[in-house]
Known about the structure:
Strand content: 15-25%
Strand order of the largest sheet: 2-1-3
Number of strands: 3
Shape: globular
Amino acid sequence: MTIPIALKQLLEMEREVGENVITPDTMIVGIARLGAENREIKYGELKSMLNHNFGSPPHTLILPGNLHFIEKEALLRFKF
């Protein structure tokens, strides 16, 4: 499953359940082919990654909880 497909499914589940767990503004980390030379790591709002092509798998999707300011600074290196 690609990251955009997973995000679309999560948004659809949110629409059905309505728990306000995930929104288009939720900050996420999308990773493709970690460990390979052509890896891709992106951090940003869910809405900005809905149509991004991460290329071939494997893909990983991370929905971080409350982050320490140092963790946020580290993720900003991968800002989308």
